[in-house]
Amino acid sequence: xxxxxxxxxxxxxxxxxxxxxxxxxxxxxxxxxxxxxxxxxxxxxxxxxxxxxxxxxxxxxxxxxxxxxxxxxxxxxxxxxxxxxxxxxxxxxxxxxxxxxxxxxxxxxxxxxxxxxxxxxxxxxxxxxxxxxxxxxxxxxxxxxxxxxxxxxxxxxxxxxxxxxxxxxxxxxxxxxxxxxxxxxxxxxxxxxxxxxxxxxxxxxxxxxxxxxxxxxxxxxxxxxxxxxxxxxxxxxxxxxxxxxxxxxxxxxxxxxxxxxxxxxxxxxxxxxxxxxxxxxxxxxxxxxxxxxxxxxxxxxxxxxxxxxxxxxxxxxxxxxxxxxxxxxxxxxxxxxxxxxxxxxxxxxxxxxxxxxxxxxxxxxxxxxxxxxxxxxxxxxxxxxxxxxxxxxxxxxxxxxxxxxxxxxxxxxxxxxxxxxxxxxxxxxxxxxxxxxxxxxxxxxxxxxxxxxxxxxxxxxxxxxxxxxxxxxxx
Length: 475
Fold this sequence. Notes:
The protein is of the alpha/beta class and 475 residues long. The protein has three domains: 2-85, Phosphorylase Kinase, domain 1; 92-332, Aminoglycoside 3'-phosphotransferase, Chain: A, domain 2 (Alpha-Beta Complex); 344-470, no CATH class.
């Protein structure tokens, strides 16, 4: 459906390519549309209509008030697909990870914070009933974030703590944070990955989870983003700049604001660790696992500068000190794998009808994963001419099979050899996924394994699809 909608908007002969983009944490699927005239657009496909409606409403509202958001080109009648402005390839996070201390990066942060203030204070006519989820970040939302951390990160560690007392302290902490003035728009996930840089100007994306909430949450989210790892002095400098921009448009008591900021910041840092635990430790996504050390460093830094904020919360303080301690930090400390590693990993898909592939490196074939226990899309007429890279097949596999569980276990098995091979300086590893025809399940699995290994280990990966490549497959 996406391809036919795109062709209707631009004309089939004017389209050069439609390429799927890497998925992040959400279920939304994005595609870059490249036209023959050099223009490019982004198509989003998302079955969550309420979420799409929120995004479209938010975008129109903010664009009218000159807040930097992408332009909408067109929307499908069922609101499951929309096309928007292509903002390029560079996010603020990309730039800060290259050189966090450069003056150019600081300027972009200041521009982002100035635009954030305008966005937060633009809500006088905003209809918060258009939020697809929670409409307000209140005490219940605070507790939800704290418990997200507890269930999806803390309880996965080998840490003993008094569960009843921690629950009581979470209740007291939530009650101690004044969100009564949370009448402004809260982006909710305001971080460098959601700030694209186009023509040296920040443009915001992925704000559809926004709601009514306290001003401090968004600035805390941006300045303390784990992977950005901004120096504390820079965080403080930018925080003061934010308050200066805010004071130019509204009045507030600075001491009260700072007190709430420190506690809301802690809630955000814990919520992020909960997300890393759920997406990484439970779902097995490498990007989130590799982010855990940065999240723990943030807790260490928060304790050093703001730990007095929880001096009357002994169980919480003990938990924070333990997860920021050497034992847990060592468990998740990021191994410094580089692209210069001598290990070459060959990931491939094949057809069992054609036989098990050989191994040119002479190591005997490496891992062979049999995908035939998963329901075969090729048994259904509408998928017979498609492959594991086509959106319809991807949706079939992700919703009608246990392919995500299958891959999660496969990744854990491969991780053991990856770490050993890298430590011992081995040069070759082959990982093969086979299915009946080498067209659907094995293609999907090989693509995902290759992406996972490149992202987590920074190794050289050779991706091959033996059956599809024989057909001169156009990727």
